[in-house]
Amino acid sequence: MSAVRSLRKLGRAALLGPSPRHALPDAIEHVAKAHRAHHPGADLDALRRAYVLAESSHRGQTRKSGEPYITHPLAVTLILAELGAETTTLTASLLHDTVEDTEVTLEQVRAEFGEEVGYLVDGVTKLEKVDYGAAAEPETFRKMLVATGNDVRVMSIKLADRLHNMRTLGVMRPEKQARIARVTRDVLIPLAERLGVQALKTELEDLAFAVLHPEEYTRTRELIREHNAGADPLAGIAESVRAVLREADIAAEVLIRPRHFLSVHRARAKRGELGPCDFGRLLILVAENADCYAVLGELHTCFTPMMSEFKDFIAVPKFNLYQSLHTAVADTGGRVAEVLVRTHRMHRVAEAGVIALGDPHRAPGASGADPAGEAAAADDGRADPTRPGWLERLLEWQSHAPDPDTFWAELRDDLAQDREITVFCTDPGGPGRTAALHLPAGATCVDAAYARYGAAGHALVGARVDGRLAALGTVLSDGDSLQLLMAPEGTSGPSPQWLEHARTPTARIAIRTWIDACAEDGERSEGAGGQARTARPAAAREPALPPAAVPDGPPAVPGGPRRAVQPRQRPAAVAGMPGAPVRLARCCTPVPPDAVVGFAVRGGAVTAHREGCPTVARMTAAGRETVAVRWQDSGAGCRVTLHAESLSRPHLLADLTEAIAAEGAAVVSAEVEPPREHRVRHTYTLRLEDAGELPRLMRAMREVPGVYDVVRATSPQP
Questions:
Q1: Compositionally biased, Pro residues: which spans (predicted)?
Q2: CA proximity to 145, closest of 394, 504, 320
Q3: Terminus of the chain with fewer CB atoms < 10 Å: N or C?
């Protein structure tokens, strides 16, 4: 009800029009009061001028509720002012809809209020559906996120804008309410969490919960109403804690912090019936970091601690700047209370997140800089807390997303990861070359390779985790020491199975791009004509691997330069097509003495397949003409992919690798699938000096204890 009354007051003030020139308009007095509480010396002239422009440009416009439209930017600005946003953010917030919904231009905003305000207003301005159609919403979010990468205040304004829109969502049609609430749940709430703006996040969660799950929301509201009708047992525990801290001479403020609606619902789903102390937590605020640990010591001495509930987010802050001590204690009556302990500064950052950091472009210590923000940055140990690791990764992968649908889907998946880990990656080049990689929880060695090397992560062939060989799909843990083993560039590439290991959009998009590019060489061409869909990047083209498979016909002089990674390749020719290169299909990796057949592909090349390869049957059925191909003795090596089927046991990977090395084969890549019913499949891509060595190698692998079959690889058909 307080939000409704506030909205009505804003409406009445706006209808009265602006105050006399140079006086602060009545409609923004409450904004100014909230702003001065955090920034006593702030110059309010920009706010006055921004309100005058916004009120005059929006005059005559109304919201669906019937209120004057100006009440919306005023409400958004008040939200930000109460969280401690600085003047530039508030100025842009008052103007955030002018360029989108009025005759005011971005150039006018820049000329009147400066480049920073213009940048923030531009960052939150939606793209037109007339120009972008169904892609308008995802492309608008892409635009906002890119703008946030340069100035995090863009997303602060967007979050406050969405909060006020969610507060007034009831005037919308039910289907539109649900659509907006879903986007809020899937995108805006995770962004608020990652930016540390808990005050906005919790209210957004409750508002979305009410729209998307009305029955559960009603049930939860009734539980809270029943609980509030009686005495709160946390009040007695809080008084006991105050007495303990007074006796220990620790100055502290002890508050009862009620759980919000969704938190109560989640606690009930996790614990079943809720106890009388489960509807809130104790919040203890102190002056200094050392006081937090002093409080913890007194709590664990004078009450019974629940050690399984203890977490130290002061020594190890969350990736969104959050710092607190979490614990739970039981009093003499056996009542258990959850407790949060933090400093006043930590509390401000926990509530307002990046908004508490102030102007990200202002030099530390400069006039108007936010001491709480500077302290948060220093405590977190990150040079630029307004450009966190997760945002860097998002900005990187979004630039490679091929279309709005991919971006939108990957964004939702990426934001669903609610925890971050740090692994320490050492290059094989030697000591002193260690990089800290910030990855989402659940990330694997494959994700780490693409995070470390970008598209060059295609060359990953193995990994060591804490000094031990590990499968590429190994899930990494916080603090792991990682060494990525990379093949020479251009000699290796990902397989479709890597997609099962990839958790990050950076890895998934890069792998899919490689696979799609490889498909254009003929194995997955569409239609009888086998026309390629797009030009294939040079790095993704398959190398022509010796021994050379050449089409029947006389040898000819090469038609172009040979790849440096394959210096021993012999010239190849096709009857009527002198100099055409021959590539060995990755789907079946033919080697002598396999019977082979070829297909002409883009660029005048020929791709050679084993005759029994399923791709051959599919392409022939589609009307593709075959090209006769024969092996030419080059005295060079060959490359082959083998599957080793075995019973799971310790050290199997090491024993197989040792057997392969004993036969003189070089491992290009190796993968181990998760065991199923005590059976496991190892996949090796190997390079042999002589194709005639293959049968002996396969026998040696079968002799390894636990291995019951070794077969040549053939890709499954799509």
A1: 544-558
A2: 394
A3: N
444 and 573 together in one domain: no
> Of the residues 582, 615, 631, which one is the last residue of a structural domain?
631
In angstroms, the CA 472 to CA 460 distance is 8
Q: Which helix (H) or strand (E) holds 639?
A: strand 638-647
3 state DSSP class of 18: coil
For the CA atoms of 585, 590, 595, 601, the dihedral, rounded to the nearest 10 degrees, stands at 10
Higher model confidence: residue 691 or residue 567?
Answer: 691
Please name the residue that has the structure tokens 């009831």.
170
The DSSP code sequence of 12-55 is: HHHHT-PPSTTSPPGGGHHHHHHHHHH-TT---HHHHHHHHHHH
pLDDT digits (tens, 9 = 90+) for 377-388: 444 433 355 556
Same domain, 149 and 63: yes
Nearest C-alpha neighbor of 380 from the set 329, 314, 296: 314
Among 101, 116, 298, 663, which one carries the catalytic annotation? 101
Q: Among 227-231, 269-273, 358-362, 573-577, which is the least confidently predicted range?
A: 573-577
Q: What's the half-sphere exposure (Cβ side, CA atoms, 13 Å) at 536?
A: 22
Which pLDDT belongs to residue 538?
34
Give the pLDDT band of residue 256 (cuts 50, 70, 90).
Answer: very high
Q: What is the pTM of this model?
A: 0.63
CB atoms within 10 A of CB 307: 9
Is 345 domain-assigned? yes
The answer on 200 and 153 residing in a single domain is yes
CB 164 within 8 A of CB 72: yes
Same domain, 264 and 311: yes
Which amino acid type is present at position 662? A
Give Rg (Cα) of the chain.
Answer: 32
Q: Based on the fold, state whether residues 65 and 25 are members of the same structural domain.
A: yes
pLDDT above 90 covers a percentage of the chain that reads 37
**First-to-last C-alpha distance (Å) of the chain:** 58
Q: Which two tokens stand for residue 281?
A: 């937590």
* Helix, strand, coil share of the chain (percent; to 5): 45, 15, 35
- Position 9 scores a pLDDT of 55
Q: Is the dihedral of CA 542, 544, 549, 552 positive or negative?
A: positive
CATH of residue 482's domain is: 3.10.20.30
Q: What is the pLDDT of residue 639?
A: 80
Segment 490-504, tens digit of pLDDT: 666 788 888 888 988
Choosing from 29, 45, 100, 466, the catalytic residue is: 100
DSSP-derived pairing of the beta strands 666-672 and 707-712: unpaired
Q: What does DSSP assign to residue 120? A: H
414 included as an active-site residue: no
Tokens of 357: 């950091």
**Residue 17 near residue 55 (C-beta atoms within 8 A):** yes
Parallel, antiparallel or unpaired: strands 434-440 and 420-426:
antiparallel
How far is Cα 422 from Cα 440, in angstroms, rounded to an integer? 9
Q: How many domains does the chain divide into?
A: 5
101 is catalytic: yes
Mutual orientation of helices 198-212 and 174-183 as an angle, nearest 10°? Answer: 140
